Amino acid sequence: MDAFEYRGKTLFCEDVRIDDIISQVGTPAYIYSKNAILAQYHELEIAFQDVDTTICFSVKSNSNLSICKILAEEGSGFDVVSGGELFRAIKAGGDPSRVVFAGVGKMDREIKYALENDIFMFNVESVAELEHINKLAEEADKTPRVALRINPDIDANTHAKTTTGKKENKFGIDLSEAEKIIKQSARYSNVDLCGLHVHLGSPIYTVDPYVRALRKILALIQNCRNEGLDIEYINIGGGYCISYTGEKVIRPKDYASKILPLVKEMQCNLIMEPGRFIIGNSGVLISQVIYTKETIHGKKFVICDAAMNDLIRPALYDAFHRIWPVNASIKMPEVENPDKTMVKKGMELVDIVGPVCESSDTFATYRALPKVKEGDLLAIFSAGAYGFTMSSSYNSRPRACEVLVDGDQFRIIRKRETYEDLVRGEDL
Ligand code: LLP
Q: What is the CATH number of domain 34-278?
């Protein structure tokens, strides 16, 4: 389904006009579609149903309690990387026995908290961490399941800042070291080493990097079994792509058709950790134009009330997000047209920027946009993943509110911060 679509000249989320929501909640505001989230989740579930699969929603992509609750109610597990994310998953109604815990720097207090809650599995990223988990498990009289996160040294062709499976990255354990740990697994008698994990980066637009990684891991599983270690779980991480431009991209069934045969050959249960795929295109950020300005050099700026503190992806990764007026007399093209010479009548080439005092506070440079004026609303698309979760109050800007739409209903699922919220906890 297309959760966000123009009906006539105005943008809707499901059956609600975006401008109706904004007249009640103000800007900037994140708006999510419940039914888009469910549709994406089910598409993955169906594509991978041929093997025993646990989908663990990656909480870092969007950790709002109401969003996590929707997924918990569908039976989703959760991929967490901190005690705080585990707290959120549980608070949202998530079942701790369906939680996997990754991250290179798990602290003792976080490991203890996860042990107390009997999470499903730790994805272990170093020998030092394995030693800590083993010791803390003994003290807690528990035997947690553990997967070794493998760094297979594979380039997933993502932005350099979101690649995680190359040998120079801090993540995971390289294959030869994993072999050593496996040979010495008797040392770690307080853990149940029963899984292997890999996460290559994000977003990944082809299935090939997954296939290459799984082929490397297949050989390792064989070696484990020769050592008497039964590897029951293969966790292939997240990274499944979404379209940011309107262009067609590969879908879960395309990933599954190449990944499932390998998982079957491994005779393992599958765990996956999608974040962006489920929530990325299920959310938009709505902002209002404050001013327009044209320099004497002919450069045009649209200055809006959302900024890099609300959505940092363009500043941090040069990420592309489609932007279009909520009420537009010119139709948004199906696919973003990169050809700047094709700017139609009624449109202009502008930089879309926020009010923060940094030049990196730019959502789009030299972008073809229908002419807008003060007070107009702009939709920044594909903002559901790594939007709000990466937001901050930089420049002492209260963080945006979040809204959930379900059919013809909507409700605020996180209030807009106030000035008082900004200073809460500070002492004079
Ligand atoms: N599993 C692990 C171990 C991860 O580190 C991540 C993301 C995921 C799963 C989920 O990946 P996804 O399915 O959402 O692609 N802030 C960046 C993305 C960073 C991803 C970090 N790890 C962005 O805005 O593009």
A: 3.20.20.10
